[in-house]
Specification:
Chain A is of the alpha/beta class. Helix content of chain A is about 45%, strand content about 20%. In chain A, a hairpin with a 4-residue loop joins strand 2 and strand 3 (about 55-60). In chain B, strands 1-2 form a two-stranded antiparallel ribbon. Classes of the chains: A alpha/beta (about 425), B mainly alpha (about 80).
Chain lengths: ~425, ~80
């Protein structure tokens, strides 16, 4: 019997489960008046939203309260978005608010949401319809106020980054009742110029200040622009319809200028890289072609002539060798002859011949000596001479002839008796 | 292919880029490659020249009557 009863926790969890899974309660747009407002030191807001006959507890966590652009107070009329859930500890349902706007402004917000939904359905935000922004434009158009921070930021940023560009300003109202028509008209006029990129925007301001950029006529002018559009409305946190339609959204006017033109040093670096790649690739090409040429010349026809040449070379070499050899042998022969001559007796011992002769001479002398009359004389003979003539017969002399007798050691004068 | 007007910086750079990529593919015959190389060198030189000679960006304002004037930022 006890099985029928469930615990409070079980019930609360069941209710929480039901509420959490209700699509309608997951995103609620709620308007009402703030009461019992408390700002927690940790940044959360606790308050009640009420109207004449009902109330609901509301909690807004610090992560969401950061985005709130006003200070909430009791009695303030607000528009909130959030989800309904159950806080189990007290069993109360409440709204967890993630966005809160002041009512009045809230009407604008509703208009914004409606227009956004309509244009999105129509396809104006489609990613595939976005035009590409030129990286290096020649002419950039700017639709914004001719005075104020936005144009100043845009021009100075472009000049600093990329001085090779021409900037065309299409001055426009950017806030007030007539701003939307003016902006749309200037976008149209800009399209009659030969521009690469068009920046449309303004500096920061309140949501009312920026409102022109949430108008349909501006959205359509941007969508119809043949020139790629960079939107640059307000600050980083501001999202306008123009931002959704534009081909590129910049967080600020300065940001738009940065997206519109390149940094000159980057371009110079890239240009240098291209030059390096260019010379590398042509060098590579030449190397390959050279290699090909070598491969061809190494092949068939070209190889034979080298062989022929080598044969000729060999023949030539052997001829040279023979020539060398024969001349050497000729020289050798001559040298040999020369050597024989050099080694000949006469040359090597020139005096031996003289010695021979002198021996012969001595022999002759001794022979001569044996034959010499002087020897005979030495043995006691003498030679008789008359008037120097040797007398060898008695018939040669007469009495009284005076003769000379040669003896071994002198002469004697004698008379024949 | 007569050039009607001087190439813009971007056009020159794109063309240069295209030639480099083409040559890097290695499919261009040598004679053509040398021709392309020479053209690329001219393009690179032009780009260099433009970067070097870059002065201040010209800023014009297009008035409501259609007249175009130099635009000066009011300090």
């Amino acid at each position: 019997m006890n099985d029928k009863y469930i615990t409070v926790t079980q019930l609360t969890r069941y209710i929480k489960y039901k509420i959490d899974n209700d699509v309608n309660l997951n995103e609620v747009f709620l308007k009402g008046e703030i009461s019992n407002f408390k700002a927690h030191s940790r940044g959360h807001y606790y308050f009640t939203i009420k109207d004449e006959s009902s109330r609901i507890n509301a909690i807004m966590f610090a992560s969401a309260t950061k985005k709130v652009k006003f200070i909430p107070q009791d009695g303030m009329k607000v528009l909130v978005t959030g989800k309904i859930s159950v806080f189990e500890a007290n069993g109360g349902y409440q709204i967890y608010v993630n966005d809160m706007l002041e009512d009045g402004v809230g009407n604008l917000y509703i208009a914004y949401e409606q227009l956004k939904k309509r244009l999105e359905t129509e396809g104006l935000f489609r990613q595939e319809l976005k035009k590409k922004i030129k990286k290096i434009p020649t002419r950039v158009g700017v639709v914004t106020a001719p005075t104020g921070a936005a144009i100043k930021d845009i021009v100075s940023t472009i000049k600093r980054r990329w001085p090779l560009v021409e900037i065309y300003l299409f001055p426009s109202l950017v806030q007030g009742e007539n701003a939307k028509d003016d902006i749309a008209k200037q976008i149209e006029i800009a399209n009659s110029f030969d521009l690469d990129t068009l920046i449309v925007g303004r500096g920061g301001g309140s949501i009312e200040d920026l409102w022109a950029f949430n108008e349909e006529i501006v959205a359509r002018a941007i969508f119809n622009s043949n020139i790629p559009v960079i939107s640059a409305v307000g600050h980083e946190v501001d999202f306008t319809i123009a931002d959704f339609v534009a081909d590129l959204r910049a967080p600020t006017p300065t940001g738009a200028a940065e997206l519109a033109v390149p940094q000159i040093s980057d371009v110079a670096n890239y240009l240098n890289q291209l030059k390096i790649r260019l010379s590398k690739t042509i060098q590579h090409k030449l190397k390959i072609e050279k290699q090909k040429l070598i491969e061809i010349t190494d092949r068939y026809i070209f190889k034979n002539p080298i062989n022929i040449y080598q044969i000729k070379e060999q023949q030539f070499t052997s001829l040279i060798d023979r020539l060398k050899y024969s001349s050497i042998s000729l020289i050798n022969a001559k040298e040999k002859k020369l050597l024989t001559i050099k080694n000949s007796y006469v040359i090597t011992k020139p005096f031996s011949m003289v010695d021979n002769k002198s021996n012969k001479y001595l022999q002759l002398i001794s022979k001569l000596e044996t034959l010499s009359p002087l020897q005979t004389i030495k043995r006691g003979y003498s030679i008789a001479k008359r008037d120097g003539k040797v007398i060898s017969s008695v018939k040669d002399v007469k009495t009284k002839d005076k003769l000379d007798l040669s003896l071994m050691d002198g002469e004697i004068k004698v008379e024949v008796l | 292919m007569a050039e009607k007007k001087e190439l813009s910086f971007e056009e020159s750079l794109l063309k240069l880029e295209e030639i480099v990529k083409k040559l890097e593919s290695g499919e261009v015959p040598l004679d053509d490659a040398i021709k392309e190389f020479n053209e690329a060198m001219v393009l690179a030189k032009n780009c260099d020249q433009k970067l070097k000679n870059a002065e201040e960006a010209i800023t014009k304002i297009v008035n409501s009557d259609g007249s175009i004037e130099d635009f000066k930022i009011e300090e």
